[in-house]
């Protein structure tokens, strides 16, 4: 949807450095050529090339671990590439520190506002390059005046003397942006700038981006929000697992294709039938064991509702940042909520806390098992019985015999491969560690099992085994919620899939609709909000209160549902202010 | 002078953008902020007023001069400590460095005024630089690094004085001795020097780029690095300054006492830290003021003086009172910080 002016702007010289010949291809402002970066144990970037043309807004997308952050940090001098080189305006450069990249005109706005909270707005903007008086002292009067002018240009009035932390997060973001551009930046890199903004703030940001664009400043824009990308970006680069997947004009790249490239699933393969089998259909009629309604948390969740039946595996799909993990945490009482109700077995949880959830029979296997679950220095036995200790002990004494019995049962049942129950868990493979964690929760005899990326980081064989285990547990009557970034795993493992988007339920796939194609379509196409708030996760709040049925069960086949009509009305379309 | 702001950016473009105004902080927040910043001064003034009614010898010129000269040396040490703590660090070595500076100055005073002044600065500045390099470049914890140099400096001092058996004397009537012993209107030179240093320190902290960098490093080291500030250089410099100031204070003290006393300065770093924290500087860094430290030092000095006035009270109780006061201040700061955030 890039208007023709955009193309014109691209070939027009943005400044004295720009190309003189209008027929010549746009000069790259900033290039990364064949860049690789390795960290201990990980190849973060593998021979990636990236070209930022003069005056364009370039989207950089990819799922977790795709290498976006690493690429950005290389472009901005935080990391140095192991191989390959950077070129600025055609000439090879090497940045040793962020400062050098900034000197060269590359400014960055990080996802978390990277300013000093206790210092004033003006001090933050001018930190490191304060204007001086004739005596060599910092000229606060001028600093405050210029800060007010600068922010005024962005439509923000605030006292430059106020400490930064007293401002709203959106305004803080604007201050970061003001700092970034006031250093005469030629390139501005934005890493998910809208992730914590209110809809109104997103509009302000887009207006400022439009302003920058009109001045010929090139932007790298990282976001997961399709609507935002298609609204403001010219070109797109897709990374996956540290490799370059695609670079091209965004308008030539359909949403479904973009999402499938991000996730690494080709459309040709998506006609796969759900492997779910009979248990699902049997479960479809059962009373739900868990019902959640209106789970809300500012910026994260907006009225998520779902139910789980015994014997069923419910898949929870969605792109990064859509609120999958947050939903699981909310159900397990591990995320403080602004609102919402959880009912387990017909009884509503009065206080939603981890303890209450565990008592009610909800167990969560967290995404990051190293940080949130496994105690590597303890033995398999100790790890398994950790959560069940209160049940296995009497008067504070733990019965070793009962422990051994329980551990023996689970090691056999889950086929945990360890030399003995006394082996340290840290010495086991990832898949077996995951099974130990699973055993720990199964000890508590839960009714609901929440699995957040249960197969991440474990090898293929163990993966299949864990997946089989999940099926078996469901067949035994457990209600399972399965979160996975892998479409295949989700489609094959789940009987039903609820798709989240921007912290709300965007659609549900049941029965024969549980296919990768349908899932991909929902992931890419659902755009239920009014366009003014398009893409803003936070938008959700207002938009949904206004609209009675804001999250229609997206019919997977209907590519152009009513939700998909982008409204062009807001004048904030960045390029409309192009002075040329 | 050309504007730092890209002129094109401040010019309005297209339709005037809708203005976003941030709500101003409430009165309660501002009161909390004021109290956090000037609370010590208020307590100090109150204590002085009350004391001058209770003890007739308190509000005399002589007593004031006494308090001032007593406070001058710890004040100079605390000034350096303030700068270090603003960066989120700590310097435990200042007490030892203070004593070492005195001994080195007393030894060097036999060669004249300049050696007596400069040699302790060189030695103590070098110790500070070493601290800074270990903290900034080697990434070691300031607590450990300066604890090591606390021990090291004290050991060096003992080696120089043959286990403390030899005391170097400042030649009578020398210019260096006058630096410590001289006075204007009864206020010793060290008092005036300390005041001048505080004025300079305030200017550096509040009105120079270096001062801004100190706040930034202490407020958010990562952000400072990403903003391209010379974080490592700033840290090295601030520990060097702390060493220089401690050594200088030690030299001044030796001049005043006419000898390099080896047993002083033990625990001085803790008094300095107390004064800095009482003065409203956050121990975690990122916020603080030089003036607050001055009030903090004076407050501790006045408390000591009062306990001496009472006479019947063992002077060791001074530490008990200061300690209690420190706790009150830290608790009050927690509440005030919460109030400022409006929670």
TrEMBL record, chain A:
Bias-annotated ranges (Low complexity): 1-12, 530-541, 552-573
InterPro entries with a match to the protein in the record: AAA+_ATPase (IPR003593), ABC_carbohydrate_import_ATPase (IPR050107), ABC_transporter-like_ATP-bd (IPR003439), ABC_transporter-like_CS (IPR017871), P-loop_NTPase (IPR027417)
Coiled-coil annotated spans: none
Record's bilayer topology term: Peripheral membrane protein
GO cellular component term, pick one: plasma membrane
The protein's name in its UniProt record: Monosaccharide ABC transporter ATP-binding protein, CUT2 family
Location of the ABC transporter domain: 30-266, 284-527
Chain residue ranges for the region called Disordered: 1-27, 530-580
One Pfam entry name: ABC_tran
Taxonomic lineage from the root: Bacteria, Bacillati, Actinomycetota, Actinomycetes, Kitasatosporales
Compartmental location: Cell membrane
Keywords recorded for this protein, A-Z: ATP-binding, Cell membrane, Membrane, Nucleotide-binding, Repeat, Translocase, Transport
MF terms in GO: ATP binding; ATP hydrolysis activity
Skewed-composition ranges (Pro residues): 13-27
PANTHER family: CARBOHYDRATE TRANSPORT ATP-BINDING PROTEIN MG119-RELATED (PTHR43790), GALACTOFURANOSE TRANSPORTER ATP-BINDING PROTEIN YTFR (PTHR43790:SF9)
Superkingdom assignment: Bacteria
TrEMBL record, chain B:
Organism, scientific name: Actinacidiphila paucisporea
Membrane-spanning ranges: 34-55, 117-136, 143-162, 182-205, 212-230, 236-255, 276-303, 315-336
PANTHER family in the record: ABC TRANSPORTER PERMEASE PROTEIN YPHD-RELATED-RELATED, INNER MEMBRANE ABC TRANSPORTER PERMEASE PROTEIN YJFF
Alphabetized InterPro entries for the sequence: ABC_transp_permease
Gene Ontology terms for molecular function: transmembrane transporter activity
Localization terms from the record: Cell membrane
Protein name in UniProt: Monosaccharide ABC transporter membrane protein, CUT2 family
Composition-biased stretches (Low complexity): 7-26
Keyword annotations from UniProtKB, A to Z: Cell membrane, Membrane, Transmembrane, Transmembrane helix
Membrane topology type: Multi-pass membrane protein
Main location: membrane
Region Disordered, annotated ranges: 1-26
GO CC annotations, alphabetized: plasma membrane
Domain of life: Bacteria
